[in-house]
Amino acid sequence: MAHALDELIADGVAGRRVLVRSDLNVPLDGVTVTDDGRVRASLPVIEKLAHAGARVIVMAHLGRPKGQVDPKYSIAPAGQRLAELADVPVRIATDVVGQDARDKAAALADGEVLVLENVRFDPRETSKDDAERGALADELAALTGENGAYVGDAFGAVHRKHASVYDIAHRLPAYQGDLVRRELEVLTKVVQDPERPFVVVMGGSKVSDKLAVIDNLIGRADALLIGGGMVFTFLAAQGHRVGGSLLEEDQLETVKGYLERAADAGTEIVLPVDVVYAERFAADAPHETRPVEDIVGGQIGASGLGLDIGPASAALFADRIKAARTVFWNGPMGVFEMDAFAAGTRAVAEAIVASEAMSVIGGGDSASAVRNLGFTDEQFGHISTGGGASLEFIEGKELPGVVALGA
Ligand code: ADP
Ligand code: MG
């Protein structure tokens, strides 16, 4: 069993430097944080340590800078948001383990926080080579000086075997942060012992990534409601023409297999009955609602794209959600970033809010979709900070950042 953060606090942290791996991977519009959910979720552990007198050093990544310093991916906007929200002093380093990070780490006073620059600016963070990652982990650990400790609290990164997530845990006394603990508790309940009916809503654009999750949910979920970009591979598997919509042709056979297996396993796969079909991928594109039997045709013709589920589908999905006792939702139903294609996602969110079910929302875009559509976190049972991590957990995969802390 992983050691809990509270054990570290009970041992006494005053004066000690504690490295915390947090998830500050927020969406940005230039230097503006458009959804600070992950910063807010990271705050309790950072403040808990600082209040106990620790000198807290936060490691986090932002986006995929590919191992190079790229100002576009600076952690600074996320760090500044943390500084605004925190009730303890927060400083930001201009490098990961360079002179500035070392100087500022050395200068920390009890109860102060230092945020290191984007750990992925260092190519060793994500290296496949154990020795390279280990060398970075050694340098990160050295920032703590004598008697340091490590707290893993970045649920959104626990599926990565990265230096700041995995290797570091073997170099310092390692503890599990409260956020990771809570995420694992909630997801374990959903996977192992859901109250039934257990309804899963899947959407989004990463079709092939998410098909593996569907595979694992067949036989576990009572119903799988499918929307978003992935639905067109299902509709095509049923013989419908989908025009220029997202389609993974090489997955058609796999999807046909799912449809057959689901029928035998008692998991109902519920597909849309209508689709909002647009002339092109643009907010102001002409669009119309078409029945799935006949998506291609009408005014839009054969080159159009399905960008949202239609209103009849939204009502069908909402009924299923209202009857559920557990709901897991990953992936928006349409291109919610554009008003014209946000109605399906909004309808699913409204149905979840109205239901009594225990609800879990996983996925970075799904979480920012509900917030940007005007819902609050409190309206949902649990908004997971992890997209890929929550899906890999549901797939039953081992998560390196969890294993490293002692599962
Ligand atoms: P999450 O981050 O919640 O796991 P994904 O990253 O898989 O979700 O997908 C989110 C993206 O999917 C959104 O940007 C949304 O615009 C896009 N999307 C949803 N439906 C469609 C569709 N029908 N066609 C193209 N893109 C879609
Ligand atoms: Mg996403």
How is this fold's topology laid out?
Elements: H1 5-11, E1 17-21, E2 28-29, E3 32-33, H2 37-51, E4 55-59, H3 76-85, E5 90-92, H4 99-107, E6 113-115, H5 130-142, E7 149-152, E8 174-176, H6 178-192, E9 198-202, H7 207-217, E10 223-226, H8 231-237, H9 252-265, E11 268-270, E12 274-278, E13 287-291, E14 305-309, H10 311-322, E15 326-330, H11 343-354, E16 358-362, H12 364-372, E17 382-383, H13 388-395, H14 400-403
Parallel strand pairs: 1-4, 1-7, 4-6, 5-6, 7-8, 9-10, 9-15, 10-11, 15-16, 16-17
Antiparallel strand pairs: 2-3, 12-13, 12-14
Helix pairs in contact: 7-13, 8-9, 10-11
The structure holds adenosine-5'-diphosphate and magnesium ion.
The site of magnesium ion has 4 residues, from helix 12.
Briefly, what is this?
The chain starts with a helix and ends with a helix. It is built from 14 helices and 17 strands.
Account of the protein in words:
Monomer. It is found in: Cytoplasm. The longest helix has 15 residues, at 37-51. The strands form 4 sheets. Strands 5-6-4-1-7-8 form a 6-stranded parallel β-sheet, with helices on both faces. The chain has a 6-stranded parallel β-sheet with strand order 11-10-9-15-16-17, with helices on both faces. A 3-stranded antiparallel β-sheet has the order 13-12-14. The N and C termini lie close together (5 Å). It folds into 2 domains: 5-181, Phosphoglycerate kinase, N-terminal domain (Rossmann fold); 194-395, Phosphoglycerate kinase, N-terminal domain (Rossmann fold, 3-Layer(aba) Sandwich), CATH 3.40.50.1260. Helix 7 packs parallel to helix 13 and helix 8 (231-237) crosses helix 9 (252-265). The chain is built from 14 helices and 17 strands. The mean pLDDT is 95. The protein has 407 residues and is of the alpha/beta class. Helix content is 36%, strand content 16%. Residues 363-365, 387 line the site of magnesium ion.
